[in-house]
Amino acid sequence: MNPFVLGAVVVLGLAVAVLAVVLVVRDVAVRHSDLLFGLIALLELALLVQLVTGSVALAGTERDVEGVTFVAYLVTNLLALPIGAFWALADKTRVGGAVVLVTVLTVLALQLRLVSIWAGA
């Protein structure tokens, strides 16, 4: 697994989480934050790159990695963020920011699990 892509996903995820907390505290609906959705788009792009590079790395590795589980986590990471973003857009209150926060924290937790799967744990 590429550590640079992993680092980009973590940094972008933390940036989205901080911005989501700010929006929740300020009681601002997420639909008014272009910056939030720009960061979400960048994070989604990084997750797509992670899916491709992770799948290529899995195909070329001699490690004892559970391939189906690893790819399932990569795909879940890729799908979770758009689902949370659309759900947040549908909400007209500050709860949308909380939905984005929970979604991005889920993505970050899945990253930890990906690292442990890749390590063979």
Automatic annotation (TrEMBL):
Keywords: Membrane, Transmembrane, Transmembrane helix. It comes from the Bacteria. It comes from Nocardioides kribbensis. The keyword Transmembrane helix applies. This is Integral membrane protein. The chain crosses the membrane at residues 36-58, 70-89, 95-115.
